[in-house]
């Protein structure tokens, strides 16, 4: 009986780190008595709001993440960069006027204090708006963004800065943008990795595998830490299955994959993104 090759996929960009404690305190400007939620990494935490105030404590696996925050009956949510520090949120909340969502709430952050990552992002976006308004040159904006990435390659903020730079300077600074992409070492937060991959596709179009184009072989470590190359299956049909233990739909498809694998001349390379 043939076995399905199993590969553990680790991004070469991922930086592993120790736990980083954080404390988030906040205040609302409305009389809301329900819960408030904080989502980061693969965690969802919630606390009861008391006298318009709330507090979260936890630990991060990496230095910073883009975190989401919303009220219990949410309609509009907001986000900020969470890191290992004492962070203070000042938020406003209103009930939505959408008649289809009566009783639901909007939440918007008026200020975020204590997060250097958030400060970095806000400063760059301020520069970007200055450029859009004709108050800053393209050269200065690019220089500021490049310095941020050079100084903080492991920050989740850097990938979002690069995204804006790529939108603005693709035609004139492609080589430098490619070099900046190579410097970035994002954490393994799903949204960050997706953003990193999308920018890669834009900056390196020749490397993108398009529909009906020839597959490019790759090498990854298997479950025994031995390198496996898809060239092993040259001359055969190869199905590359990307899955994760938290993906219910992926697990439900395993019986179907086993049926497919029984067919002649078909090999399945199963790539875990856990």
From TrEMBL:
Keywords, ordered alphabetically: Cytochrome c-type biogenesis, Disulfide bond, Redox-active center, Signal
UniProt keyword Amino-acid biosynthesis present: no
Domain (Thioredoxin) ranges: 209-274
Localization in the cell: Cell envelope
Single GO molecular function: oxidoreductase activity
GO biological process terms on file: cytochrome complex assembly
GO cellular component terms given for this protein: cell envelope
Domain of life: Bacteria
Signal peptide region: 1-17
Chief site of localization: other
Pfam families: AhpC-TSA (PF00578), DUF4369 (PF14289)
Protein name: AhpC/TSA family protein
Lineage: Bacteria, Pseudomonadati, Bacteroidota, Flavobacteriia, Flavobacteriales
């Amino acid at each position: 009986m043939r076995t399905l090759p199993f590969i553990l996929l680790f991004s070469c960009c991922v930086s592993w780190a120790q736990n980083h404690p954080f404390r988030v305190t906040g205040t609302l400007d409305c009389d809301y008595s329900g819960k408030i939620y904080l989502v980061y990494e693969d965690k969802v935490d919630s606390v009861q709001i008391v006298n318009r105030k709330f507090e979260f404590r936890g630990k991060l696996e990496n230095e910073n993440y883009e975190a989401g925050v919303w009220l219990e009956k949410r309609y509009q949510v907001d986000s900020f960069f969470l890191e290992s520090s004492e962070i203070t949120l000042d938020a406003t909340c209103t009930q939505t006027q959408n008649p289809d969502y009566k009783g639901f709430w909007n939440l918007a952050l008026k200020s975020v204090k204590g997060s250097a990552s958030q400060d970095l992002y806000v400063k760059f976006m301020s520069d970007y708006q200055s450029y859009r308004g004709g108050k800053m040159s393209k050269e200065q904006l690019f220089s500021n963004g490049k310095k941020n990435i050079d100084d903080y390659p492991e920050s989740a903020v850097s990938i979002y800065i690069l995204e804006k730079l790529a939108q603005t300077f693709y035609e004139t600074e492609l080589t430098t943008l490619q070099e900046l992409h190579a410097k970035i070492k994002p954490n393994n937060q799903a949204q960050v990795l997706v953003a990193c991959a999308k920018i890669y596709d834009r900056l390196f179009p020749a490397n993108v595998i398009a529909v009906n184009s020839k597959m490019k072989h790759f090498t990854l470590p298997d479950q025994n830490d031995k390198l496996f190359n898809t060239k092993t299956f040259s001359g055969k049909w190869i199905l590359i299955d990307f899955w994760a233990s938290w993906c219910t739909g992926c697990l439900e498809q395993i019986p179907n994959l086993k049926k497919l694998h029984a067919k002649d001349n078909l090999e399945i390379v199963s790539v875990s993104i856990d």
